[in-house]
């Protein structure tokens, strides 16, 4: 049978995504808070995950390598200078060869077609570690972070980790998330998952930087089923009104470096500041998220380092959610 891959959250149901988040929370409690005391176990002993990265990475790489270590397996990092990744050898040949020797592949690519081709030719599960179109493991971490944030807000507990006592189904539905920025891989991954989960999403992108139509179509279809609200605008103020969460990302994604000057001018007025969010009328207890890496231009220090900012727990949660995906695909064999 064809292996199970994790290419985009669009391929999975709301229950499957929530179960991954719930599993990530269990893994965090077990590994970080030693609850229950972890038994010596190495479910991936002798197994290897190849990391094929044609772009830079801090979080995704560290999250994946440490997850493999925790599960007793080996992570083999192969950057674009290490192997013949699509330059001197085709992706088809690379995928067939590598997948004949390893138990899983995690790949960070340019065009989305590259990850689809790798998956098609692979005999083992392939995880998308970011493509120009989608970034599924980031959005799992965002869901986990939203769950923890809402749980703590509702329960008023701060000094103790209790988020594992509640299922994310109960916290996420009905939230309003406002995106202010580029119609990029992060927003597109939110669009194919948030409406399905009943999370209201309003996105402000400058004219000419909107999302792909096929992605918007998925979001609209999902939102019709769940009645989640979906708003597209070119005005950050409109998007932010009544939001629980304000999110942004870099204006210049990896591979777009040559467009920097044009983008900086086209995104004028999009920097997230306290003044901007307060004027727009977000909820009084609004919080801020960003997948990182971050630049000053899209969000100023006052917001980024404030107590409204969830960016560092969000970065840490990359580890627990990636561990949950590896646990599903490599230990259990499927996403349940
Ligand atoms: N958010 C994210 O994917 O970070 P890295 O590029 O550092 O992996
Ligand atoms: N949109 C960014 C995300 C980085 C994690 C990029 O693709 O470079």
* Strand line-up in the sheet with most strands: 7-6-5-8-9
Amino- and carboxy-terminal Cα gap: 17 Å
Strand content: 5-15%
- Overall radius of gyration: 19 Å
CATH topology of the largest domain: Rossmann fold
Domain count: the total is 2
Q: What structural class do helix, strand and pairing data support? A: alpha/beta
Give the uncertain stretches in residue-range form: none
Overall pLDDT confidence: 95
Architecture per CATH nomenclature, i.e. the level-2 architecture of the largest domain: 3-Layer(aba) Sandwich
What is the helical fraction, as a range of percent? 40-55%
Main sheet summary: 5 strands, parallel
Query: What's the count of strands?
Result: 9
> Number of helix segments?
13
CATH class group of the largest domain: Alpha Beta
The hetero compounds bound to this protein are: phosphoric acid mono(formamide)ester, norvaline
Topology (elements, then pairings):
Blueprint: H1 14-32, E1 48-53, H2 59-70, E2 74-79, H3 91-99, E3 104-108, H4 112-121, E4 126-128, H5 136-155, H6 168-172, E5 176-180, H7 185-191, E6 200-204, H8 213-226, E7 230-233, H9 236-240, E8 245-248, H10 260-266, H11 274-280, E9 287-290, H12 301-304, H13 311-332
Parallel strand pairs: 1-2, 1-3, 3-4, 5-6, 5-8, 6-7, 8-9
Helix pairs in contact: 1-5, 1-13, 2-13, 3-4, 5-13
The structure holds phosphoric acid mono(formamide)ester (CP) and norvaline (NVA).
The site of norvaline has 9 residues, from helix 7.
